[in-house]
Amino acid sequence: MDDGTFDNWDIAWETCCFGQAGGWAFLMYHEAPGFGPDLEALARLGVTETVHLNATSAKAIYTFDYMRDGRRIDDDWGALELIWYDRGRAPYFRGGQLDYLNQAIRRAELDHPELTSEFELYFHALEDAFGLQLPRQDIQEGTVRAAQWACRNS
Q1: What is the β-pairing status of strands 80-81 and 61-68?
Q2: For the ranges 12-16, 69-73, 130-134, which has the lowest average pLDDT?
Q3: Does the structure show a pLDDT above 80 at 77?
Q4: 111 or 16, which is more confident?
Q5: 92 burial class (0-12, 13-18, 19+ CB within 10 angstroms)?
Q6: Strands, E, within the chain: which ranges?
Q7: Whose CB among 1, 64, 73, 105 lies 3.0–4.6 Å from 125's, allowing a Cys bridge?
């Protein structure tokens, strides 16, 4: 969608983009009907890990939530707001369940001084730590697969 007319505005909220890259499947959406992907359904499909990034850009709230083998990995914090990360400071407990992300973030800080945004650094660290390889160019060009949410008759 590149014409930005109001006629197409609702379509963006009714669709999702999806694909597979680097051993991960990805799903990008504005809003999902109901409450988003069903974790039990994902488990039945054999999905053992999920990384959920949520952006509420109007409020500048970005969250990270990681599930592995049916349980949240979070040092008992729940979904974490990324505003807790400041350059040079570890956002997670040292020695905790997510300490490896502290190390990935520090590597990103040292290896990429050209990245000035803390969000860019954090996302770069997540990509490295989890081996995520989102097809950025395809996403920017709008050539990823897309679908419209199915309507459920209740």
Answers
A1: antiparallel
A2: 12-16
A3: no
A4: 111
A5: buried
A6: 15-21, 24-29, 49-56, 61-68, 71-72, 80-81, 145-148
A7: 105
> What amino acid is encoded at 23 in this protein?
G
For residues 27 and 37, the answer to whether their CB atoms sit within 8 Å is: yes
- Coil, helix or strand at residue 99: helix
* Per-residue pLDDT reduced to its tens digit, 122-140: 888 988 899 888 888 888 8
DSSP code for 15: E
Task: Tell the burial category of 124 from Cβ atoms under 10 Å away from its Cβ (0-12, 13-18, 19+).
Answer: buried
| Type of residue numbered 55 | A
Tracing tokens 């990681």 back to the chain, one arrives at: 66
| Cβ count within 10 A of residue 104 | 20
What are the tokens at 152?
């459920």
**Matching residue, tokens 């999902």:** 32
